[in-house]
């Protein structure tokens, strides 16, 4: 009889264990499905005329066409020129609900007669007068702890705002995983939230010219606010504690920082 009871108890424990694992798996699947994909699309120009033509196309044709495909919160940015960064470019940040939506966009645009009409000058441009020098496209997936893009709102002119795009490369894939974990489990995202960095996104680069790589964007009312918040970040007890943990050492081998501002036709 005792042996029979033990068998029943063992069976119940196994069933409970399986159900628990199944629940965890289902919850993880829901998180993965909710994580957006982002395309960072950068147009590079050799002249003001090229930039003007692409501006017109994005404003009057491409962005409205994406809206018709129910793709919203599209960021359109230009660099804040400096002595070390004089490259003419326009940076688009496009969120997608799924890879299928990303892959289906080209066919959707082909079927959009309004897009073809309003974007004709750009779409049918001659090879002698292209509207850009080249295009760079980076595909990303949102971090687990921030699966959706956030479109910030400020009561200041767009030209005054600071959008800070950061790109972190890691020496190996294993170090890269640790850096991603530093944002998620390590609490770096929570720290940014506590201080009010207004992060637009945090994402893992799935395909890009520099890998392994993660990217994220934070926003500020102006440069002064940005500088004050970064000082608070480096002085915070949370950051100082993270720096003492060996598992997060040497996780960034190269970092790039880009200061941008939104165009008037940007969604935010």
How would you describe what is shown here?
The chain has one domain (36-262): 2-Layer Sandwich (Alpha-Beta Plaits), CATH 3.30.70. It is built from nine helices and eight strands. The radius of gyration is 23 Å and the shape is globular. Residues 6-10 and 23-27 have low confidence and may be disordered. The chain starts with a helix and ends in a 6-residue tail after the last strand. The chain has an eight-stranded antiparallel β-barrel. By secondary structure, the protein is α+β, with helices and mostly antiparallel strands. Helix content is 43%, strand content 24%. A hairpin with a 5-residue loop joins strand 6 (201-207) and strand 7.
